[in-house]
Amino acid sequence: MTTTPEATITGDRAGRPAARWFDICSYAGLLPERGVCAMLDGTQVAIFRVFDGTLYALSNLDPFSGAHVLSRGILGTRNGTPTVASPMYKQVFDLRTGVCLDDPRVVLPVFPVRRAGGRVEAALTDERRR
Question: Could you write out the DSSP letters of every residue in 10-54?
Fold first, then answer.
């Protein structure tokens, strides 16, 4: 899915990076325990909705296989941590932080994500833009 910027660029005076928000899909269309991939200014982002309705977004690139497949991963939990397991070699990543729970030296980029009315939006921050 390729998206065009539909929303706002936000930042704050505390020095946090500005974020450029992209409309991804309808919230109802993102089924619980499923993911979708969106292309945000050339960056593939995997966006997930877990069973309780919480949204997460992280890089779609599996660093172990080099394939852009994490949006098709298996959602679950490990010790109460929401996770996604890569469909390739099954490494498990913390959806909140991007840390690989099987090899904590590996960390995926995470992205801001929010529900705006009935839509899901994800953002690239200044630090994540190409």
Answer: E--TTSPPPEEEEEEEETTTS-TTEEEEEEETTEEEEEEE-TTS-
